[in-house]
Amino acid sequence: MTDTTVVWNEALLGYDMGEHPLNPVRVELTMALARDLGVLDRPGVRLEAPAPADDAALLRVHTPGYLDAVRTATVGASHHGLNTPDNPVFPHMHDASALVAGATLAAAEAVWRGETRRAVSISGGLHHAMPDHASGFCVYNDPAVAIARLLDLGAERVGYVDVDVHHGDGVQEIFYNDPRVMTISLHETPLTLFPYATGFPAETGGPGAEGTSVNIALPPGTSDAGWLRAFHAVVPSALRCFRPQILVTQCGADGHRLDPLADLHLTVDGQRATYLALRDLAEELCDGRWVATGGGGYALVEAVPRAWAHLLAVVTGDALDPALPTPASWRALVADRCPGRRCPDAMTDGVNPAYLPWSPGFETPDAIDRTILATRQAVFPLLGLDPADPRD
User: Fold this and answer.
1) CA–CA separation, 202 vs 222, rounded Å?
2) What are the pLDDT digits (tens) for 84-124?
3) What is the Rg, in whole angstroms, of the alpha carbon atoms belonging to the chain?
4) Alpha carbons within 13 A on the beta-carbon side of 72
5) What is 2-383's CATH superfamily?
6) C-alpha dist (Å) from residue 177 to 101, 108, 161, 182
7) Local structure of 174: helix, strand or coil
8) Has 128 been annotated as catalytic?
């Protein structure tokens, strides 16, 4: 069995909306940085080229009418969420979107069938796409397509953890009434950020699936210490109660302090700490079975490549030393692809991502602790846990 499968080839860069924040250069620079750091050449790492998801796979989460709309969309006709500033029509849109879905699908299948312990689809994580419309830069919802395949292959409990700065609304919507899937999303509050309407603590799962939707809506300005305190106050306890057989994660890098589209203040050091925590939970609860995807991230040079190179390192083996310099070969590529952009010279932002664990003794008006308590009070009783007990 291969230790880690990285599903990748350059055809995945075809998911390209043109003059748009979701620029595929961030994925190109990520893979180049990981390669230049030797991450992709580690023993036990296999690179696999994806095939497009077929209609049967896509129709597990999307409607026939929507697939037809994606296939036939032309510039100028707005329907099914297409031809908007967020979701412009682009050449070969169906083919490119189906390939991204196919990459995440292949990652999930390889892990579930025991061909590999962990797998990563760095181009994936298009978590906003809805059954019948595009949303938030996302055409097909590849995490949901992969989770649906896992259920079809016999999985009884799939854990999904989304650490993108935006609420993982599409995946939550698709599985809201399915008790076999627990969706956990840690994000900036929708009071201040897209998608605005969902991602609040009171969204805890539909009839028969109560307690399987978990939302941690953090205030703008949250830094590593608050993010990690919230993560560890909710995510491990919820997952331990649910007992997933496999962990699927969406690892959007747009919570970074330099991201132009959001208002959290994470560093690559805090994001690296989050990935390590996810790996530990997969090891503890799922015998190591972990499928990781990318997601959002719009600091194309300054944050995303370093964050996801750290993710690739954690998935494939040992974490990278944050003090490592970025390779000269990579900095040259950045200068060629993104002239004029500041290129980081190290894999760290120079921050120690230490945090103070949550306890009910935080009797302060701190917005992060109010967020933690709101989520625990909403969902923990449904899981048989005590929202006021720090041991739960």
Assistant:
1) 21
2) 999 999 999 999 999 999 999 999 999 999 999 999 999 99
3) 19
4) 8
5) Histone deacetylase domain (3.40.800.20)
6) 22, 22, 17, 10
7) helix
8) yes
